[in-house]
Design a protein that fits this description.
Layout: E1 4-9, H1 11-28, E2 34-40, H2 44-53, E3 58-66, E4 79-82, E5 92-100, H3 104-114, E6 120-128, E7 141-145, E8 168-171, H4 173-177
Parallel strand pairs: 2-3, 2-5, 5-6, 6-7
Antiparallel strand pairs: 1-8, 3-4
Bound molecules: 1-O-pyrophosphono-5-O-phosphono-alpha-D-ribofuranose.
The site of 1-O-pyrophosphono-5-O-phosphono-alpha-D-ribofuranose has 19 residues, from strand 2, strand 5 and helix 3.
Length: 179
């Protein structure tokens, strides 16, 4: 079965952009240690690729905030399913996301994280869907603007699968119609 209807961001384009973002981040955080905060599960692939090209000292921590479950549209209800292991006090925190869609997840997350007194808090997302935004949030680093379509791959799942595909695509009707 062909799972792809159309590729939206190719593997080559992602890898090239990741290197550009890592160069910007390395320059902006010169002399500082960066705490990369991975929002699981979607942010994992992006964090790994991004971290490889950052030249400043980097530490990771992981958090799960879910609003979608297995649905294709946000429920609007955000819940923390896994919290961080380390304090953020005095740290330079960079949230790493695969996609910002409605903005509801990040809007919620930023408020929680700000209350933990980091030295700085910024957001890096590979993808943004501005057409679907319900709440405005300032994004510091953006890979690509994408159309308001259901997308899969490079961290984005369909029923928890296909996060490992190295490009971002619109899934085929055949895939979506499969029970
Ligand atoms: C996705 C994505 C963001 C959020 C963005 O996570 O990784 O965290 O949705 O959507 P929003 O801007 O509309 O809030 P999801 O809840 O699907 O969890 P996952 O990363 O485990 O797939």
């Amino acid at each position: 079965m062909d799972i792809v209807e159309r590729i939206i961001v190719s593997e080559e384009a992602i890898q090239e952009r990741v290197q550009e973002l890592a160069a910007d981040i390395s320059r902006d955080y010169a002399g500082k240690t960066i705490t990369l905060l991975c929002v699981l599960k979607g942010g994992l692939m992006f964090l790994c690729d991004l971290a490889k090209h950052i030249t400043q000292p980097v530490e990771y921590d992981f958090m799960s905030v879910s609003s979608y479950g297995d649905a294709t549209e946000t429920s609007g209800i955000v819940r923390i399913t896994k919290d961080l292991e380390e304090s953020l006090e005095g740290k330079h925190v960079l949230i790493v996301e695969d996609i910002i869609d409605t903005g509801l997840t990040l809007n919620y997350l930023v408020k929680i994280l700000q209350s933990r007194n980091p030295a700085s808090l910024r957001i890096c997302t590979l993808l943004t869907k501005p057409a679907n935004r319900r709440v405005e949030i300032p994004i510091d680093y953006v890979g690509f603007e994408v159309p308001n379509e259901f997308l899969v791959g490079y961290g984005l799942d369909y029923k928890q699968l296909y996060r490992n595909v190295p490009y971002v695509f619109v899934p085929s009707k055949e895939l979506l119609e499969r029970a």
